[in-house]
């Protein structure tokens, strides 16, 4: 009897892996076709289905290198950092360090002094769902001043001035994408844990999940891709400084699949926090948002996604909790249209209508 059970389990494992390979062959075909149409763009993709991992990659680390991109090649994930930050906020809520509906006033560093009419108005969840109404950093102006490192001139003092000089939350309760909101979330985390953001994300996410190639400060490592702006010019990796919680992290397909597996696991600490971030905190006629993540629902599925674009790279992460799959797409060019089109094609032709059973083989 024991032998029969073991044999059945082994057969099921082989069948599931073969099934996953069949699904991923279709995904790989789409990625390969996109690379052939855009041969200058390096691509790395990781996919997880029922905890089985699959990877593909096309292109070289840079134009001068013959080293191929692989699952370990380092990319900027840029604003995908925000879902890591929101997960840390949810972990803090689970640990009762804060409540998501708390007002931000008492959690801010002493440099921040809200105008009287703005006190006890902005909640932590408002920051995380991009509806605080606070003014944001002027990225356009910063790019003009320093196109390679536009964030370099942003300081704790300049951020405090933006917040302190705000006299009215003109669009409070309405969606407006915010870098400063996530910077404040990082500072809130620093206050409740009495540690730096780097120490917090390292101790609560990077080390526990063994994301050994996920970087926060030192990017001078081997197997690092070279970024390119839309015109093909070389673009440096950003040094985010004080705004780190909004876009700092550099990672690879392998580590991001590790993260996807963790958030799809309801029993893991990161997974429990992810369930909180997936609750709807904002909704209008165009979008639904959790904490740092977009919620997209169709007639059959609910998927969660977040994109990231630096000046030289584009990325997107997406997962379906009910069907237990997740995908990360990383490009070494800033090309948001390409990465979105690839995800759309993969979803529409492979994942959307699939019941993820043997009929897809």
From TrEMBL:
Residues 28-338 form the Beta-lactamase-related domain. Keywords: Signal. The keyword Signal applies. SUPFAM superfamilies: beta-lactamase/transpeptidase-like. It comes from the Bacteria. Residues 1-20 form the signal peptide. Coiled coil: none annotated. InterPro entries: Beta-lactam-related (IPR001466), Beta-lactam/transpept-like (IPR012338), Beta-lactamase-like_AB/R (IPR051478). Belongs to the beta-lactamase family. This is CubicO group peptidase, beta-lactamase class C family. It comes from Flavobacterium nitrogenifigens.
